[in-house]
Amino acid sequence: MSKKISSRASSSLLLTVFAVIAIISAISLFVFYLLLKSESHLRFTAIKNIAAEKIAKTAWGMEMNAENVFDEVGKHLDSPEAVIKALESKANLNPEVRGYFAAFVPDYFPQKGTWFEPYIHQSDSSQSDKFVLSLVGSARHDYTKSDWYVRALRTHDSFWSDPYYYFDGTSISGHYCTYVKPIFDGQRLTCVCGADMTFEWLTKSLEQIDASARNDEQLEHFLPLGELDFYTVVFNHDGSCIAHPVNKRLTLTDEHIIKEIGQGKSGTFDTDVKGESCTVYYGPIEHVDWSVLVVVSRHGVWKALELVGIGMLLVALAGMLIVWLTYRRTKYETTE
After folding, report:
1. Which of helix, strand or coil describes residue 208?
2. CA pair distance 200, 90, nearest whole angstrom
3. Cα–chain-centroid distance for residue 307?
4. Cα dist. 225→27, 259, 263, 280, 301 in Å?
5. What is the residue-averaged pLDDT of the chain?
6. Contact, 75 vs 160, CB < 8 A?
7. Which residues lie closer than 8 Å to 328 by C-beta, 6 or more apart?
8. For the segment 176-228, what is each residue's pLDDT rounded down to a tens digit?
9. Among candidates 49, 137, 139, 60, which has minimal Cα distance to 94?
10. In the sheet that 241-243 helps form, which strands lie side by side, from edge to edge?
11. What pTM was estimated for this model as a whole?
12. Mean pLDDT, to the nearest integer, of 58-78?
């Protein structure tokens, strides 16, 4: 009778030890999961903030260069020729600018008729630094009806326009975003100046930001088992993607998220991108009415958890095996 009781007690003790090992392993894995989730959130929030800051600084630098051009125009309002020379004298300030224009109020220079909009822009010739003059104002291109012109008249303040596509059948046609500023002669509005920029500079900035983050030793140090599988995109306030890496465009359909981005808020959400589960971190960019979004593959983030989980499972099984073998040996010796 005593042997049966001893055997039952030993079996119960063995099961208890197995249960303790399993519970400790599960708790350890859960704690690691929480730490991994927190670290991942801090990591990609930091990448998002860094991207927003770098883009804002680049945009601010473009604004300052454009302001210098516009100030020069404001000093030479005495004749159409003086305006054109003013634009030409500063056209090389920023190689990322496609062109500078000055759209004058109707009949400001009577000899030029209703529309006078000199546009100094880059040439398509092999001399990429060469700028040429085009007079683009006409009944066909009535700039006074353009959104940027109407907004400048209404606000009397500088701003970045919404992205748009301009087409006139010439080499000037393309996708643009324009930094706009109204120019005054005393209290009288004379013209609306603008600096046209394609989105090549923004795409280049995103590539540099992503590469810098992937090669950052401090970021890599925190999660050596994981992968920095992510990319950065820029959205306009209306929820449209205006800059993204090649073949990595993001489309939003959730009206709540689109509204959040339009209001310049920050946050995260989960979504599927081409069948892959991703977490997206978003936040506003200063100086421009845009938001930066960091799209993170959840598989890359949770790879560390999978590896640690497998490792813990193997350790737990090894521990249980050792305990079981010890139990069998002890039981055999006791029987002997």
Report:
1. helix
2. 21
3. 30
4. 20, 36, 37, 21, 9
5. 81
6. no
7. none
8. 889 999 999 888 899 999 998 887 788 888 888 888 877 766 555 544 455 56
9. 60
10. 241-243, 230-236, 290-297, 276-285, 267-273
11. 0.74
12. 90
- Quote the CA–CA distance of 103 and 118 in Å, as a whole number: 7
- How far is Cα of residue 97 from the mean position of the Cα atoms in its chain? 21
HSE-CB at 189 with a 13 A cutoff on CA atoms is 18
Burial of 157 (0-12, 13-18, 19+ CB in 10 A): exposed
Each residue's pLDDT tens digit, 295-316: 988 776 666 666 676 777 777 6
Instruction: Return the structure tokens found at 335.
Output: 């029987």
User: Residue 70's CB: how many other CB atoms inside 10 A?
Assistant: 26
Q: Give φ, ψ of 68 to 5 degrees.
A: -65, -40
What pLDDT does residue 97 have? Answer: 85
Reduce the DSSP state of residue 177 to 3 states and report it.
strand
DSSP calls for 94-144: -TTEEEEEEEEPTTSSGGG-S---EEEEE-SSS-TT-EEEEE--SSTT-GG
Tokens for 48, please give them. Answer: 């998002």
Location of structure tokens 């109707």: 106
Evaluate if residue 2 carries a pLDDT over 90. no
- The answer to whether residue 73 scores a pLDDT higher than 80 is yes
Tokens of 11: 């079996």
Task: List, in sequence order, every residue forming a beta bridge with 185; answer none if it has no partner.
Answer: 188
Q: What is the radius of gyration, based on Cα positions, of the chain?
A: 32
Q: Measured on CA atoms in the order 140, 146, 150, 155, is the torsion positive or negative? A: negative
CA distance 226 to 300: 6
pLDDT of residue 107: 92
Helices (H), ranges, the chain? 2-74, 80-89, 147-155, 200-214, 217-222, 255-262, 298-335
163, 202 Cβ separation under 8 angstroms: no
Residue type, 233: V
Predicted confidence band at 265 (pLDDT cuts at 50, 70, 90)?
Answer: very high
The length of the chain in residues reads 336
Among 73, 58, 171, which Cα is nearest to 123's? Answer: 171
